Amino acid sequence: MLRIRPYRTNDSKQIACWCRDSISFYQWSEGRLGNFPVSPERIEQAVSGRIDNEKYFPFTAFDETGAVGFFTLRQTGEAPEELSFGYVILRPDSRGKGSGKQMLKLGIKFAFELYGITKVSLEVFENNPDAYYCYKSVGFRENGNVTSYDLCGEEWKSIEMEITR
């Protein structure tokens, strides 16, 4: 059974090991953590500086084998009724087994039931179909917004998706 808990400092060591190649690293981070490979220190720096922020929630997903995933939820702009998923990543051996869906559902439950949000959004790159279909399977739908990023010497298109209460 998968559960979530608030992110802890030592989680960054495990998360950094899950980023095995540059493509999956940039799909996960949008380049916001610098260049590949990522260090635990860079993850820690990105997350810990915002932990006391009332609008930013980093979570670690775990089961009986230990940490299997990580994600953040954050308030976007001035919209107090909306949270956005970010940095969604799974331990490589947990992919394709339903762990991503379970983790997202727990994050959505936190947002809707515990935090009282009415909409949750996220972005996914077109070149990440596994993540796209995982998000769709838990109820996210495209909202028509597409953003382009320059990553790995290419233009990557990011599709915004959302789910409402």
Please provide a written account of the structure.
Helix 1 crosses helix 3. Strand 3 and strand 4 (82-90) form a beta hairpin. This protein is α+β, with helices and mostly antiparallel strands. The protein contains five helices and seven strands. A seven-stranded mixed sheet has the order 1-2-3-4-5-7-6, with helices on both faces. The model has no long low-confidence stretch (mean pLDDT 93). It has helices at 11-18, 22-29, 40-48, 99-114, 129-137, and strands at 3-6, 56-63, 66-75, 82-90, 119-125, 141-151, 154-164.
SSE map:
Blueprint: E1 3-6, H1 11-18, H2 22-29, H3 40-48, E2 56-63, E3 66-75, E4 82-90, H4 99-114, E5 119-125, H5 129-137, E6 141-151, E7 154-164
Parallel strand pairs: 4-5
Antiparallel strand pairs: 1-2, 2-3, 3-4, 5-7, 6-7
Helix pairs in contact: 1-3
Describe the structure concisely.
This protein has helices at 11-18, 22-29, 40-48, 99-114, 129-137; strands at residues 3-6, 56-63, 66-75, 82-90, 119-125, 141-151, 154-164. It is of the alpha+beta class and 165 residues long. It has a seven-stranded mixed beta sheet with strand order 1-2-3-4-5-7-6, with helices on both faces.
Q: Count the helices. How many?
A: 5
Could you report the average pLDDT, rounded to the nearest whole number?
93
What is the spatial order of strands in the main beta sheet?
Answer: 1-2-3-4-5-7-6
Principal-axis shape equals globular
Q: What is the rounded Rg?
A: 15 Å
Quaternary status = single chain
Total count of strands: 7
Flag low-confidence runs: none
Q: Major sheet: size, sense and barrel closure?
A: 7 strands, mixed
Q: Which structural class fits the helix and strand makeup?
A: alpha+beta
Which percent band covers the strand fraction?
35-45%
- In N-to-C order, the SSE pattern is EHHHEEEHEHEE
| Proportion of residues in helical segments | 25-40%
Distance between the termini: 24 Å
